[in-house]
Structures are given as C-alpha cells and as structure tokens.
C-alpha cells in the first residue's frame, strides 16, 4: 500500500526512507487491524484493546523525544502519523496522542532524569498507558487561572483533592498526570498518579456523540496521597503545563487534517461508485466542486502543519503558531466533513458509509486542546500585542 493519491502535493516526499517505512507500517496496520472493526466499536462506545500489542510493535509512542523511551524522530513524522491514524479513526489518533503526547510529553518535558527513566521506557513499550488530567468540570478554557484541584504538602507526600473531567484513557490508564494548584504557593504543579492509588476514582463518561471509542472519565481525587517522588520536578507553574500543550496542540491540528481526509476519501470513493441519472455522480460539476473544495481544505491544512512541524523540529515553534494551526485546521475540517456528508446525501448519515462517523468526531476535535475562540485570542494577542481575554 503506497502513498494515497489524496496527498496532492506529495508531502510524504519530505520524509526520509526510514520515516516513510514507519508511516507505511502504520498505514498497513490501520487498514488491516483497525478499519474493519472500528465502526462496531464506535457504535458500542467500546475500545479495541486487542489492537494495543500491534500498535506497540510499531514503536511510535514517544517518537519525537530524545532520551529514555524516545524514538529520536522528527515532529514531522510524528504529525503525519497522527494524521494517518485520524484518517482511519480519530478516536485511535486521540488515544495515541493522549498517551504518547500529553502523558509521555509531560514526563519528558517536566520530569527529572530519574522520573524519565522510571516511566518513559515502559510507556514507550505500551506496558504502562498514560492519561492527562487538566480539564475540570468548571475549568476548561479557563484552566490557567481557574484550576480548583488542590495539592497540599504533608511531609514527604502531597494530598490531592478535586475533580477532573473529559480525561481520555483514564478509565484504564496505569499513570495519570494530574495538574493541581499548590495551596501554599498558588502555582500549578504536575503529579503522576498511579492506578489504584487510594482516593483516586474514575467514572466513565457515556452518551457521547463524538469520539465514542475514546474512554473518557470523570476523575474524583479525595485525599489522594502522592509521594514527592511522583511530583514532576520541572512542573512548577502553568507555563510548564503550557509547554506540553504547545507540543500536543500541533498534533491535534494534524489530527484535524486526518479527520477531514478520512471523510474526503470516503466521499471520493462514493462519488466514483454511486450512479444517478444514468452516470457516476463523480461526473457532475457540482460534485466535482465539492470534492475540489475538500481537497483544497485538506491540502492547505496539511501544508500549514508541515511548516509548523518543521518549526518544532528547529525548536522555534511558538504558542501562537500552534494555536493558529489548531484553529485553522479544525475550521477547515468541520467544513470538509460537512461537504462530505452533503455529497453522500441521505446516505451520509448511515455509518455503513463511514462519513457520518467523521462528521461526529470532528465536533470533539474542534473543541478540545483549546476551542477555536481561545486559540484565536492567543494568536490575536501575539499579532496585536494586546490581550483580549476576559
């Protein structure tokens, strides 16, 4: 299985031979192991744990990191892998991104060398799966200043109290990164909370219309005692949390491209098979117009992400650049999946034709890792020098 024809500007050509083999391995794995089963899991809102060993064998967790558990590969490849997963199923891309990006990234960017050695190699092998607990029931976009989960020092331990919401992977994760406000300094600190720690409980969030395969949890922390050794030594303010989010926000932009591509590719296949008025609908001018608009959206978004990844690889990416990509790509994604559903007519709402799944999942990608409005304000502050936040 080679490069898809939907890579209209040949962006995969920017990868070297080894990187292309990794991407090809992911593509083949997804086609063989994920695509045939994912709609059934989406309907039942269950996670396909049976794919984890195969995913682990690909060696893609922590791919862009140096040091323990890292793959020492470019962010460009990491982003293209996120796109590749999302074009088959955005939930699998999210599962991978939470573990490899948010959880492993928190330890990589904010952990001590000892902490990296302790956790990252096992996480890279998927022997321990991670989650990332920042969002709260009453603190989403306002997490920087509104975080209410508290951390209180008690000798060689910290006592965590509060709640987290929408935490992907948390129902089964072995390690959850919890961000909490120090009651003494009022600064936001990071902690690694291990599974089955007393006082740490998770409740699955059901009845979702998007990313139904992702197992989100409402977390309650009731007097959870965490040793000082589990406090991320380099996480001493929300600015440190922001370093993780800068990296992963770029990955979400890539996921948005993948979600849009998945819908476009199913719509393109449908158009070349569906007949009306005695001919394939792909031969109608209005259908071709929809297809070209979708291709333009995905190509423009992918090229933007390529440059952002190259800035990351050079150590030059900024919060505003990541936010612009996330905002732009998710808007174009939302438009593209809508065009795909429109092209399929009534069949667009049937899961048998796949597009409806991408339409629904796009709604979650549009909102998480910073809404369009919040990311717009980050960029607006950067270009004007004036903060317009409340």
UniProtKB/TrEMBL annotation:
<dbReference type="Pfam" id="PF02770">
    <property type="entry name" value="Acyl-CoA_dh_M"/>
</dbReference>
<dbReference type="InterPro" id="IPR036250">
    <property type="entry name" value="AcylCo_DH-like_C"/>
</dbReference>
<dbReference type="InterPro" id="IPR006091">
    <property type="entry name" value="Acyl-CoA_Oxase/DH_mid-dom"/>
</dbReference>
<dbReference type="Pfam" id="PF00441">
    <property type="entry name" value="Acyl-CoA_dh_1"/>
</dbReference>
<dbReference type="InterPro" id="IPR037069">
    <property type="entry name" value="AcylCoA_DH/ox_N_sf"/>
</dbReference>
<dbReference type="InterPro" id="IPR009100">
    <property type="entry name" value="AcylCoA_DH/oxidase_NM_dom_sf"/>
</dbReference>
<feature type="domain" description="Acyl-CoA dehydrogenase/oxidase C-terminal">
    <location>
        <begin position="244"/>
        <end position="383"/>
    </location>
</feature>
<dbReference type="InterPro" id="IPR006089">
    <property type="entry name" value="Acyl-CoA_DH_CS"/>
</dbReference>
<keyword id="KW-0285">Flavoprotein</keyword>
<dbReference type="InterPro" id="IPR046373">
    <property type="entry name" value="Acyl-CoA_Oxase/DH_mid-dom_sf"/>
</dbReference>
<feature type="domain" description="Acyl-CoA oxidase/dehydrogenase middle">
    <location>
        <begin position="131"/>
        <end position="224"/>
    </location>
</feature>
<keyword id="KW-0274">FAD</keyword>
<comment type="similarity">
    <text>Belongs to the acyl-CoA dehydrogenase family.</text>
</comment>
<protein>
    <submittedName>
        <fullName>Acyl-CoA dehydrogenase family protein</fullName>
    </submittedName>
</protein>
<keyword id="KW-0560">Oxidoreductase</keyword>
<feature type="domain" description="Acyl-CoA dehydrogenase/oxidase N-terminal">
    <location>
        <begin position="17"/>
        <end position="125"/>
    </location>
</feature>
<dbReference type="InterPro" id="IPR009075">
    <property type="entry name" value="AcylCo_DH/oxidase_C"/>
</dbReference>
<dbReference type="Pfam" id="PF02771">
    <property type="entry name" value="Acyl-CoA_dh_N"/>
</dbReference>
<dbReference type="InterPro" id="IPR013786">
    <property type="entry name" value="AcylCoA_DH/ox_N"/>
</dbReference>
<dbReference type="InterPro" id="IPR045008">
    <property type="entry name" value="ACX4-like"/>
</dbReference>
